[in-house]
Design a protein that fits this description.
It is a single chain. This protein folds into 3 domains: about 5-65 and about 85-165, HUPs (Rossmann fold); about 180-360, Argininosuccinate synthetase, chain A, domain 2 (Alpha-Beta Complex), CATH 3.90.1260.10; about 370-400, no CATH class. Helix 4 packs across helix 5 (about 125-135) and helix 7 packs across helix 8 (about 280-295). It has a 5-stranded parallel beta sheet with strand order 3-2-1-4-5, sandwiched between helices. It has a 5-stranded antiparallel beta sheet with strand order 10-9-8-13-14, covered by helices on one side. It is about 40% helix and about 20% strand. The radius of gyration is 25 Å and the shape is elongated. It starts with 5 loop residues before the first strand and ends with a helix. The protein is of the alpha/beta class. The chain contains 12 helices and 14 strands.
């Protein structure tokens, strides 16, 4: 076991990370620094300070990172219209590189040799945290308790908590049976009944969104203003990246937008079923594609679509800080210079309906050419005959050979 004098722990203040904190002190006889990030999970993070103090922790970092998360991570990802395996909007995946970044930075600030996290040895998060940390500091040490200790069941964890006088908070309703992760982009659910992919999730599971059938009977319209591929205003009101997501989450949830139920392929090799609520992200994806449809060159748009699955896999698998992701991001960001204008959407009972899109500066839609009316010579329809015959030449040759 490596000698560790000081370690920075990603600390939520919950039972698992409180057990990890005490276990680090006991197992490594080291000083622990706690880091708690507010990335819009909707819960108070300040109580983590009091809990850390009860363990004798003197260096406690509690930070509101919502704006950095939205502006530097979520918005760049959405410029690529990113979906993993065609469905998952990567709400957990995109939060991990930011947490890894701050863990490494705090380790440098506090003279810590190591970082630690509470991700299990079965999941993707251990990969995301550690790949990010090593990319930013190749000499950092990582302690992953779930891969080291023998507390491999809930009973053993509870026994350890009781032995070390770690308070176990019990909610009046018994708490949620699901493993959940929340931030500005989404809330996820795993475990419990979801481990049977045939069983539908209970109505009580969903925390954010209205059931579409119970959503308002009156639709709601929004106008989203884009600059360089990012939403900068909603209904004409300028907003920061985090404020955009907060507002769209509120409105989208009211109208039942953003629920998904997915069986995905984890990087570590297994299939996993998860349910997600991503109201803001679902609106952002639909509207961004509408804005690009008006302003992006055809081949640029198609190239982006071809590269997107690779980009999505890089984020899902933990390679945000990799050189290949950075190269792809450079290309994606360059394509967004012309993605400026407005998109009108209507939200109604789980649906996002595009009503219109316009760009005064970069629209490639030419009504004189697209019209079904007289086009005043802007497009010569007879030219299409040669175009078709040239493109059909190879197929005509092949057909003759078959004959």
């Amino acid at each position: 076991m490596a000698e560790i004098n000081k370690v920075v722990l990603a600390y939520s203040g919950g039972l698992d990370t409180s057990i990890i904190l005490r276990w680090l002190q006991e197992t490594y006889s080291c000083e622990v620094v706690t880091f708690t990030a507010d990335i819009g999970q909707g819960e108070e993070v300040e109580p983590a300070r009091k809990k850390a103090e009860q363990f004798g922790i003197s260096e406690i970092y509690i930070e509101n990172l919502q704006e950095e998360y939205a502006h530097d991570f979520v918005f760049p990802m959405f410029r690529a219209n990113t979906l993993y395996e065609g469905e998952y909007l990567l709400g957990t995946s995109i939060a991990r590189p930011l947490i890894a970044k701050r863990l490494v930075e705090i380790a440098a600030e506090t003279g810590s040799e190591a970082i630690s996290h509470g991700a299990t040895g079965k999941g993707n998060d251990q990969v995301r945290f550690e790949l990010g940390a090593y990319a930013l500091n190749p000499d950092i040490k990582v302690i992953a308790p779930w891969r080291e200790w023998d507390l491999t069941s809930r009973e053993r964890l509870m026994a350890y908590a009781d032995q070390h006088h770690i308070p176990v908070e019990k909610k009046a309703d018994g708490g949620s049976p699901y493993s959940m992760d929340a931030n500005l982009l989404h809330i996820s659910y795993e475990g419990g009944e979801l481990e049977d992919p045939w069983i539908a999730p209970s109505d009580e599971m969903w925390r954010w969104t209205q059931p579409p059938e119970d959503a308002p009977d009156q639709a709601e319209e929004l106008t989203l203003t884009y600059q360089h591929g990012d939403i900068v205003a909603v209904n004409g009101t300028p907003l920061s990246a985090a404020a955009v997501m907060t507002l769209l989450n509120k409105i989208g949830s009211k109208h039942g937008v953003g629920r998904s139920d997915i069986v995905e392929n984890r990087y570590v090799g297994m299939k996993s079923r998860g349910c997600y609520e991503t109201p803001a992200g679902t609106i952002m994806l639909k509207a961004h594609r509408a804005m690009e449809s008006l302003t992006l060159d055809r081949e640029v748009a198609h190239l982006k679509d071809e590269l997107m699955p690779r980009y999505a896999s890089l984020i899902y698998n933990g390679y945000w800080w990799s050189p290949e992701r950075e190269v792809l991001q450079t290309m994606i960001d360059a394509s967004q210079e012309v993605v400026n204008g407005e998109v009108r959407v209507k939200l109604y009972k789980g649906n996002i309906i595009i009503l219109g899109r316009r760009s005064d500066t970069h629209s490639l839609f030419d009504e004189k050419i697209a019209t079904f009316e007289e086009d005043a010579g802007a497009y010569h329809q007879a030219d299409a005959e040669g175009f078709i015959k040239l493109n059909a030449l190879r197929m005509r040759i092949a057909a003759r050979v078959k004959e």
